[in-house]
Amino acid sequence: MKAYRWVMEGRGTPLKRTAFVPGKPDNNEVVIAVAGCGVCHTDLGFYFDDVRTRHPLPLTLGHEISGQVVSTGQSAGSWQDKAVIVPAVIPCGVCDLCHRGHGTICRNQKSPGIDMHGGFASHIIVPSTGLCEIDIKRLAAIDMHLAYASVIADALTTPYQAVVQAEVETGDLAIVIGVGGVGGYAVQLARARGATVVAIDVDQAKLDRLKDFGATLTINALEVQGKDIRDAIRQFATAQGLRQTEWKIFECSGTAAGQASAFGLLTFGACLSVVGFTMDKLELRLSNLMAFHARALGNWGCLPGYYPDALELVLSGQVSMLPFIERHPLSEINEIFSRAHQGKLVGRAILVPDE
Ligand SMILES: [Zn+2]
Ligand SMILES: [Zn+2]
Q1: How many CB atoms lie within 10 A of CB 111?
Q2: What spacing in Å lies between the alpha carbon of 55 and ligand 2's midpoint?
Q3: Mean pLDDT score across all residues of the chain
Q4: Radius of gyration of the chain (CA)
Q5: How much distance in Å is there from the Cα of 301 to the middle of ligand 1?
Q6: How far is the CA of 135 from the centre of ligand 2 (A)?
């Protein structure tokens, strides 16, 4: 089997195409022919910034992966030939935490592109634990290529886990701060669960796009700031007949400014979900949680058990992915990384093996 992957040897040095032999998968492992792999903010953090992968370099990045199983270990035989999404966080499935349903904090979890070679490759070898099977016919019926389903891992499922654990339901007011690759799906997911959604960003084009995909009110944080954001949402809630309490707030920008805005929107019984990541620190009055009887939650990826539910929202048309995706050949990975880093991409880039 001919295979190659694009390997990172050092921070910021050009990724290199390297041939490798996938070899025979272990008992519970599968070899997947990669259909596509999404470029995530986290990959850029590993490549351009000070964020470290757990596996030492050289390493192939990429943790949003879809593809087809081409060979299996002995106990993973049922996966042969299936189209799948690889979970971005793969719990071990056998430890005490996993048995109690806490796979996202499993201490033996593995992530492609962080603990092992990832998806910017023609093939990957991963444990079969938590793989999500895709019905290719239903995917084709909504004009989705298998490569596009890669973005379900992480970009869609991470906000899905957040929306589930925040218990978003009909009648809620949900506020999403930062509506890029992840936050845009948070908007759609909250809407799909019956919430009325406010989207906040500094990018007017991203806000405008979401008006057709679940955002009822959009706020440009370059124009409206601080207490004025809160006042605008209060007025909106009144006009819409929604509650002034129990807002469900999702911080997806991964910036200190976004986190400050999110915390500033806390109200009685509110739930603040931290979805985005930043190394930056924030000074805040944590006692507001107590005074408001509010909750602050985080989630590390998403339980594989939720992937089929998230996929179903896409297949049934409740969440749209195509307008938010751009496809590029994997051979252009170095150029795409730098364009993504410069914020020059409109949609989430999916790299597709092309040779
Ligand atoms: Zn990611
Ligand atoms: Zn485990």
Answers
A1: 23
A2: 18
A3: 96
A4: 20
A5: 8
A6: 27
Report the separation in Å between the CA atom of 109 and the middle of ligand 2, taken as the mean of its atom positions. Answer: 6
Query: pLDDT tier at 346 (50, 70, 90 boundaries)?
Result: confident
Interval 219-225 mean pLDDT: 96
Report which bound ligand comes closest to the CA of 91: 2
Contacts of 2 (CB under 8 A, 6+ apart): 19, 122
Tokens standing for residue 142: 């909504």
Query: What is the reported pLDDT for 355?
Result: 73
CA of 42 to the centre of ligand 1 (A): 5
Residues 170, 246: contact at Cβ < 8 Å? Answer: no
Q: What are the tens digits of pLDDT across the range 31-61?
A: 999 999 999 989 999 999 988 999 999 999 9
Ligand 2 centroid distance, CA of 101 (Å):
9
Report CA(93)–ligand 2 centroid distance (Å).
5
Q: Note the pLDDT tens digit of each residue in 271-323.
A: 999 999 988 999 999 999 999 999 999 999 999 999 999 999 999 999 999 99
> What 8-state DSSP symbol labels residue 55?
S
| Ligand with the closest atom to the CA of 100 | 2
Mapping DSSP onto H, E and C, the string for 136-186 reads HHHHHHCCCCHHHHHHHCCCCHHHHHHHHHCCCCCCCEEEEECCCCCHHHH
Single-letter amino acid, residue 81: D
Q: What spacing in Å lies between the alpha carbon of 160 and ligand 1's midpoint? A: 14
Q: Establish whether the linkage from the previous residue to 87 is cis, with ω within 30° of 0.
A: no
Ligand 1 centre and the CA of 100: distance in Å?
25
- Residue 81 class from Cβ within 10 Å (0-12 exposed, 13-18 middle, 19+ buried)? exposed
Proportion of the chain above pLDDT 70, given as a percent: 100
| Cα 114 to Cα 20: distance, rounded to the nearest angstrom | 18
